Amino acid sequence: MKWTPQAEEALKGVPGFVRGMAKKAVEEEARKEGAEEITPELVKKAKEKYITSLFGGKSDQSEDKPTSSGDDKGEKGEEKTEKKGRKVAIIRCDIVSETCPGIACMKAWNNRKIHFEGYGPDDELIAMLTCGGCSGRRVSRMVSKLKKYGLDVVHLSSCMMLDNDDYPKCPHIDEIKKTIRAKGIEIVEGTHH
Fold first, then answer.
1. What is the rounded average pLDDT for all residues in the chain?
2. How confident is the model at residue 55 (pLDDT cuts 50, 70, 90)?
3. Which of 32, 54, 70, 152 could form a disulfide with 86 if both were Cys (CB 3.0 to 4.6 A apart)?
4. What single string gives the DSSP state of each residue in 33-100?
5. What does the pLDDT average to over 78-101?
6. Residue 80: inside a domain, yes or no?
7. Residues 102 and 44 in one domain
8. Same domain, 50 and 117
9. CA distances (Å), 26 to each of 16, 63, 91, in order?
10. What domain count does the chain have?
11. pTM here?
12. Which range marks the domain in which residue 132 is found?
């Protein structure tokens, strides 16, 4: 489907790790409306419909809305704004953590590469922890604790998502995802692979 340059520009604000899903959602909305070309209006409509699940925050997040606390005026009388960064945690395989110090995950985060591409300087990695061992027994407890610190997104480390000779498939991954989603936290599958 054809995208106008303005529509493509509007999609650039979407974090890289969900941009593909967001693009599909916009195109699906266009098909429902019988549109043959993607416009900024269609992108905005899809953002409003899917807000957090695909676009990583409220659709007006990038529009610098004023805060409602205290003095809402700056020195020159303009309205102050509040920009909230996302709080991120990485959960990794307990067994793999015995031989892996997590350097590749941290490098990917620090350089905002691979699955961390869409994060900005205001986003913060607040925890890197293990699942607690099979059956992911620590996940529920840790996610609940991290929610008190504003947790928004959990990345499931690549070691939990891969299925090859170096990393056998996690037999509890579906249950771990279900536990995290039940707490209202966004999940991203992968870190550095």
1. 80
2. very low
3. 152
4. HT-SEE-HHHHHHHHHHHHHHHHSS-TTGGG-PBP-SS--B-TTSPBPB--PPPEEEEEE-TTGGGT-
5. 79
6. no
7. no
8. no
9. 15, 20, 30
10. 2
11. 0.59
12. 87-189
